[in-house]
Amino acid sequence: MIIKKLFQHYRIRVPKWIVSWAIFISDSIAGYLAYYIVLQAVVAKTFPNHYEQIIVWIIFQCLWSILFLINGLYKGEYIVSRMFEIETMLKVTFTIVVLYVFIDALRFFNFPINARGMARYWLIFMSIALTVRFLIRSFQKYLLRIGIGREKTIILGKNRRGLS
Q1: Distances (CA, A) of 6 to 9, 96, 120
Q2: DSSP state of 71
Q3: What's the rounded Cα separation, in Å, for the pair 6 and 136?
Q4: Which of 34, 45, 99, 107 could bond 124 through an S-S bridge, CB–CB 3.0 to 4.6 Å?
Q5: How many C-beta neighbours within 10 Å does residue 131 have?
Q6: How far apart are CA 28 and CA 8, in angstroms?
């Protein structure tokens, strides 16, 4: 009996874990592509060692991942709204980039990356990450429509939803 319940929990949770990890990996790939296209040449001037450059990318990615996790952007649920997720992601990242540009303009710290480079990084990162997230969530909704990934639920009510 315990094994059956355990299997049922995994049957429900594993697809959600797969979606969460797919989103996390796609964000990491998007972050690396944006980093490689825009920031690597600038970072290479400050950190000539290749391993140090990778560490800079890992720090960037860890910061984004922590912010996305705090804001619930790695949920594997199929009921997540694609537009709400895009809106939340844009708000979070845009706030950080504007804060970076503001601090860079005030010259509190001497950042190796200028505001223009950070804006280009943000545009490329968001374009790739949002496109891939939208595709993953759309595929998830498609699977739900054909009956894969549904959970057994009982809907109580008097209207047409309760009757079906």
Answers
A1: 5, 41, 47
A2: T
A3: 27
A4: 34
A5: 13
A6: 31
